[in-house]
Amino acid sequence: MPWAVLLGLLAALLLLLLLTRRRTRRPGEPPLDRGSIPWLGHALEFGRDAASFLTRMKEKHGDIFTVLVGGRYVTVLLDPHSYDSVVWEARTKLDFHAYAIFLMERIFDVQLPHYSPSDEKARMKPTLLHRDLQALTEAMDTNLRTVLLGDATEAGDGWHEMGLLDFSYNFLLRAGYLTQYGVEALPRTPQSQAQDRAHSADVFHTFRQLDLLLPKLARGSLSVGDKDRVSRVKGHLWKLLSPTNLATRAHRSTWLESYLLHLQEMGVSEEMQARALVLQLWATQGNMGPATFWLLLFLLKQPEALAAVREELEGMLRSAEQPVSQMTAIPQKVLDSMPVLDSVLSESLRLTAAPFITREVVVDLALPLADGREFSLRRGDRLLLFPFLSPQKDPDIYTDPEKFQYDRFLNADGTEKKDFYKDGKRLKNYNMPWGAGLNQCLGRSYAINSIKQFMVLVLMHLDLELVSPEAEIPEFDLSRYGFGLMQPEHDVPIRYRVRP
Ligand code: HEM
After folding, report:
1. Are 63 and 31 in contact (CB under 8 A)?
2. Each residue's pLDDT tens digit, 55-100
3. pTM for the predicted model, two decimal places
4. Signal sequence span per UniProt (predicted)?
5. What spacing in Å lies between the alpha carbon of 389 and ligand 1's midpoint?
6. Which helix (H) or strand (E) holds 257?
7. Ligand 1 atom at minimum distance from 448 CA
8. CA-100 nearest atom, ligand 1
């Protein structure tokens, strides 16, 4: 029997090799690079360091090419002038959701009957915009104060040390969780706020254990020990976020109410609802903390930039209608009038936001590029844009692209700079941390408001410094999707205290 299994496996492998090796480039298709390892193709190099691999491929083939990655053919487009042909293409041709559904099932064990991503999007979109956005922003302000200032006060006078990534991720995720999933009681009391702090800390610490294992989980390379850990951690999160536990929470966002109703209307079981709510915690809260980590780090490493942000904030607060001591929330007007902080955030995202923008090719189609060329794409392949390389790190667009230059997105008159050029032509998509087109991030206004609120609170109320100001900025690790983050043991130590 073992021999039969072995022979079967060998036969399957051989068939696989024959199938994947048969593909050749057809006229009109992008250059094809299958790499030297059958079936795997370039999977190892891609997984290790996508940015270096894609740079090498770009030098070899130009700004469009097809590579074999773990049995899939992926066409990579790196010309930002042509990105609109992809991001505005109809879903019936280039589908955003197929890969998201695959990740949802593989990583979060979520299977939804009669699931329609476009119905879900139509339903959820209004809960992140306009009046609902204002409600989210106001709640976020209060919750940031509860966790950030409350934790620091609870810990007592004097300096506290922790890692900068832990600091940023912890406070933003906890406040974001309370904002979207609700708080212990309304009106808040000192006791209910202490409970909010403890409960949200439990959610964060459990979530973070899963977050650290996600790259391995996505690649399917968990060890036996990791698998046990993942199922324990998921079990705890499902309990914490179960509809029954959430039912008693106060001040739940319209986002949560709408999402729960949507799941119930689909007939999703309570257990599956809890899994979907954990997935949503990751999707909505997984990026703000890491983005803020880099923003704070660049500011702490560049005193001139930090001084410019401080000066802008102090000017705004001086001209605000209310004195700072009486402010219970940062007015939206203040958040909207901080072009220096906006520029710092855009610059920090330019250097660190590295999402893969992927679409499934649903039908054979012709992809027109901005320079007049046209390429055939095959149904069943995947299309990938990687704006991190171009436009974001493109030396033709940005001088010294590796350098953090806090005023890069400011005009001489202090307004936002929006004109950037490549090959003498003005670019529409010159910085893409939020994606672009039909599937551009729906939470970006909420995320931008939250990050700015957090920065304003830190600047107003805390003294915060690097423990080793002379230490180098840590290596950017792109094996994690999204933002290149280090493992916790390489986090950047900081110390902070509530200003006396
Ligand atoms: C710094 C924080 C964030 C970053 C950098 C970020 C980035 C992105 C990117 C790049 C995409 C587009 C992916 C693609 O086109 O393939 C996206 C989509 C999306 N984001 Fe965000 N995001 C952030 C925060 C949030 C938050 C806070 C929410 C909600 C509360 C959110 C909700 C969404 C949704 C719903 C989509 C999918 C849109 C669709 O289905 O068309 N994001 N995000």
Report:
1. no
2. 999 999 999 999 999 999 999 999 999 999 999 999 999 999 988 8
3. 0.95
4. 1-24
5. 19
6. helix 254-265
7. 1
8. 16
Here the tokens at position 74 are 């992926």
Could you tell me if 438 and 96 are in contact, meaning their C-beta atoms sit under 8 angstroms apart?
yes
From 441, 445, 451, give the residue whose CB has the most ligand 1 atoms within 8 Å, as the site to mutate. Answer: 441
Residue type, 111: Q
Give the count of beta carbons closer than 10 Å to the beta carbon of residue 140.
24
270/302 Cα distance (integer angstroms): 49
Distance of CA 424 to the CA centre of its chain: 31
Q: Is the Cβ–Cβ distance between 483 and 294 less than 8 Å?
A: yes
Retrieve residue 495's tokens: 């110390």
442 within ligand 1 shell (Cβ under 6 A): yes
First to last CA, the chain: 75
Nearest residue (by CA) to ligand 1, atom 31, is: 443
Q: Residue 64: is it exposed, middle or buried by C-beta count within 10 angstroms (0-12/13-18/19+)?
A: buried
DSSP string, 108-129: H----TT--HHHHHHHHGGGGS
435 lines ligand 1 (CB under 6 A): yes
User: How many residues in total does the chain contain?
Assistant: 500
Distance 315 CA to ligand 1 centre (A): 32
Q: Please state which of the ranges 15-29, 52-66, 172-186, 297-311 shows the lowest mean pLDDT.
A: 15-29
